[in-house]
Amino acid sequence: MKINVVKSVLAASDASAERNRSTMDAAGVLCINMLSAPGSGKTALLERTIPALEPERPCAVLVGDLQTTRDAERLGALGVQVTQINTGQGCHLSPKQVAEGLKTLQLDRIDCLFIENVGNMVCPAVFDLGEHRRVVLLSVPEGDDKVGKYPVLFQKADAVVLNKIDLVGVLDYDVGRVQDDLSRINTRAVFIELSAKTGQGLEGWLEWLAAQRPGG
Ligand code: MG
Ligand code: ZN
After folding, report:
1. Quick one: three-class SS letters along 133-197?
2. How far apart are the C-alpha atoms of 32 and 112, rounded to whole Å?
3. Fewer Cβ in 10 A, N or C end of the chain?
4. Residue 198: CA atoms inside 13 Å, Cβ hemisphere, count?
5. Measured on CA atoms in the order 22, 5, 127, 187, is the torsion positive or negative?
6. C-alpha span between 145 and 83 (Å, rounded)
7. From the CA of 210, how far away is ligand 1's center (Å)?
């Protein structure tokens, strides 16, 4: 399996984000930026999601990580176009890095591009990458206090996905507390509970995805 790797300098620019969005609009590609702490299950959710969308909605992934192609290898095993963007010391993806990543993909062949951002609840929140939708993942082992602690991450979310709900009982996780915190900072975001491991709740996520279109 061949994994494309892009290494570029960390630089942010709204103009670059708008160019990315125009490029994807022109190709009719829906772009979803996925943000979360490390270990929330972004890659695991994509491993569930992509086979459910393919072949009707062909997918590709841009994966951001400081080092390694581990996630890209997992996703490449699904047979879709995957490009790993190694950020080195950079703790988020920038729109310019995404622009470089887009050049490595055949956009005319896909409907849906997922950007798996670097696992980090802080600065990825402030960078528009040119996505159409922003999805923030939470997972039960992280604790139920994260929406209140990292509000910026959740303010612009279109969907908040709570992963690993199979552990809610084991860890005494308070889903209501999370929903309360979320309702104070973002009334627009859809809240979806699921387990990428067991598949529980996956249909709600897939229904939400099915309703999303570039631009609209
Ligand atoms: Mg990952
Ligand atoms: Zn950063």
Report:
1. EEEEEEEHHHCCCHHHHCHHHHHCCCEEEEECHHHCCCCCCCHHHHHHHHHHHCCCCEEEECCCC
2. 8
3. C
4. 10
5. positive
6. 33
7. 22
Q: Taking 60 as the threshold, does the pLDDT of residue 187 lie above it?
A: yes
- Taken in order 41, 189, 204, 47, is the CA torsion positive or negative? negative
CA 73 – CA 189 distance, rounded (Å): 31
Contact 116, 64 (CB under 8 A): yes
CB 31 within 8 A of CB 128: no
Would the pTM of this model clear 0.85, i.e. be above it? yes
Ligand nearest, relative to CA of residue 37: 1
Domain boundaries, the chain: 2-210
CA of 182 to the centre of ligand 1 (A): 24
Please give all residues whose CB falls under 5 A of ion ligand 2, grouped by chain where several chains appear: 91-92, 123
Q: What top-level class would CATH report for the domain 2-210?
A: alpha beta
* Residue 68 burial class via C-beta count within 10 angstroms: exposed 0-12, middle 13-18, buried 19 and up: exposed
Ligand closest to Cα of 88 equals 2
Q: Which ligand has an atom closest to residue 117 CA?
A: 1
How far does residue 113's CA lie from ligand 2's centre (Å)? 22
Q: What is the pLDDT of residues 120-167, one digit of tens each?
A: 999 999 999 999 999 999 999 999 999 999 999 999 999 999 999 999
